[in-house]
Amino acid sequence: MGMGIETSIGQGDIRTRDHRSPVELEPIYDVSGAEILVRALAEQGVKTLFGIPGGAVLGLADAIGRFGRFRWVLTKHEQGATHAADGYARYSGRVGVVLVTSGPGSTNTVTGIATAYMDSSPIVVLTGQVPLPMVGNDAFQEVDTIGVTRPITKHSFLLRSAGEIAETVRKAFYIAGSGRPGPVVIDMPKDVLAAHADYLPGEPVVVRGYKPKIFGHAHQISRAAERISRSRRPVLYIGGGVVASGASEWVRRLAIEHQIPVTSTLMGLGAFPTDHPLWLGMLGMHGTYAANMAIQMADVIIAVGARFDDRVTGRVADFAPAADIIHIDIDSSVIGRNVQVDIPIVGDARHVLVDLVPLVKTPDSREWLEQIQRWRAEHPLWYDRNSDVLKPQLVIEKLGEITDGEAVIVTDVGQHQMWTAQFYRFKHPRTMITSGGLGTMGFGLPAAIGVAVAQEDGAPRRPIVAIVGDGGFQMTMEELITAAAYRLPVKIFVINNGYLGMVRQWQELFFGRRYVASELFRANPDIARVAESMGALGMRVEHPGEVQEAIEKALAWDRGPVVVDFRVDPRENVFPMVPAGAALHEMIEAKPSEE
Fold first, then answer.
1. Is residue 206 part of a domain?
2. Of these four, 47, 55, 123, 272, which has the most CB atoms within 10 Å of its CB?
3. 221-247 average pLDDT score
4. Residue 240 domain-assigned?
5. Is residue 223 domain-resident?
């Protein structure tokens, strides 16, 4: 792959676009490491980076000001910068870029790096470091960034000379965006950025020992096609790898052409249209009854780009007891890790499905589809739609109706995240942006900022709505100032129940209703007034009849961010729910008060 080339993340084929100008194709002699780094970023087509400057990177900041043709979005916290770059990457498919200083600057990115790592999101994090001779001497603002971040990165680099900067940047972007995507850290000592070397145009990247397997084994694909063709109760189970690889079209073809019902993880939402008759709903701890029962009764499960994590499987010993499992994933380490697999296929999801779909013969699954329809009719998602108290599910349903499922939804973590997964109707990949694997509260608002910036940089324009809880909003609400400063059209819907809602739900169900350290209502600020003080439009909604007008007003506002404080029923819980240690079919469906 040539340098300066953008590649669709997760793709093994060379679907590329060269961003370099003729200037970047010419060598430049005897320039600072900082200037080399800026030119290397330009090679990669970087349009925006997120971050906060500091002493260790002031030379680089100056070089960006003098030579850079990309903008710097100045956030209010390094964690916010990292989440913003993550949101940028997830929505655009391009590598997101973060720049921070040494010490606390780098350590403040750790939660964002871990979030990106767990969800396979491609970001490159540039961290300042003390001069090389001072490394290991407890210098001012020195931290072993490589050591701290090694377990949560796909790879990390410590720069040791100015001459290696350009090649390191090329390798970092290639590693971050290829194979199973993920975060890469480049730690940059101050003296290396100040030293001089020659900038030379890049050659194709070669990373010794790193060669993602893109194409699946033909024999295994043939076996999988044969097993699917003779199934009677097939289920297609998809995850975030389908989105990352651009495999949504082929998932739809496999499902629709061969009448195979589809369920997904939280990260896979949008890869298959949730208004299609074959859609089962999300599976797992808060999955639908139809999805969970279909998995438990299936005779074949085709898992694509998913990793069978604990939130999906429930009690592993009783997971899908009658099913042969076909597992397609580009990362061989996840195949067979949590559940026994009958037909493993290592490869990029899109490439494997391109080869698999034409080989499949439509199975005879008429009785199976009829059974699924009965489950769906008898066990729908439910909440009290006639309540005089504002229900959180109503807010999300109304949002879905008004946007017709065409918005980009960015969520925080908690009850509102699960209600969004259940009640919003996603139609397109990359329109559900959320923290899945790490479950990071505070992710939603800064990630939505990243989505908005990605749209300004050329990604498809859609309404952007961050659905957050009152707890998570207060963890990173300083980034509302960032959104206002750049007049970003982000709508923040705060599902305000006065609690750490998911914590309260577990305390209610499993800890004798002892609400220890989960009550927020005693100290919550007036969120609408806080929003106004930060430069956003603030609104408060307390009654069901006000919801539609508030959503329409928020979506129509074009002068910057909007925050809507929805004061919802504090006692509403997320159901269905599979308790910890239970099997998928052992769901709690009714409210405890109604049992």
1. no
2. 123
3. 98
4. yes
5. yes
Alpha carbon distance 224, 343 (integer Å): 7
Per-residue confidence band for 24, with pLDDT thresholds at 50, 70 and 90? low
Mean pLDDT, to the nearest integer, of 34-43? 96
> Catalytic: which of 47, 76, 190, 491?
190
The one catalytic residue among 78, 142, 508, 572: 78
Q: Is 387 left (phi over 0), alpha (psi -120 to 50) or beta?
A: beta
Which residues are CB-neighbours of 57 under 8 A, at least 6 positions away?
99, 100, 101, 102, 126, 128, 188, 190, 193
Determine the Cα angle at 352 with ends 347 and 357, to 5°.
165
Give the domain-ending residue among 325, 355, 378. 378
Among left, alpha and beta (phi > 0; psi -120 to 50; other), residue 566 is beta
Choice among 26, 140, 249, 549 that is catalytic: 140
Q: How far apart are CA 165 and CA 186, in angstroms?
A: 9
Let me know if residue 302 belongs to a domain.
yes
In this structure, are 413 and 451 located in the same domain?
Answer: yes
- Catalytic residue status for 78: yes
Say yes or no: 329 and 432 in one domain: no
Q: Which helix (H) or strand (E) element contains residue 171? A: helix 165-177
Same domain, residue pair 171 and 277: no
* End-to-end Cα spacing for the chain: 60
Which among 3, 502, 534, 587 is annotated as catalytic? Answer: 502
**Of 438, 390, 477, whose CA–CA distance to 267 is shortest?**
438
CATH code: domain of residue 304 = 3.40.50.1220
* Catalytic-role residue among 1, 70, 134, 141: 141
What's 17's domain CATH number? Answer: 3.40.50.970
Nearest to 129 by CA among 109, 170, 162, 100: 100
Whether 190 is catalytic is: yes
Give the torsion sign (CA, 380, 384, 386, 389). negative
- In this predicted structure, which of 190-204, 293-307, 545-559 has the lowest mean pLDDT? 190-204
Global pTM reads: 0.94
Instruction: Specify whether 485 is located in the same domain as 366.
Output: no
141 is catalytic: yes
Q: Do 178 and 120 contact (CB within 8 A), yes or no?
A: no
Residue 46: Cβ within 10 Å count: 24
Residues 468 and 412: beta-carbon distance below 8 Å:
yes
Residue 321: give the domain boundaries. 218-378
Angle at 201 between CA 199 and CA 202, to 5 degrees: 115
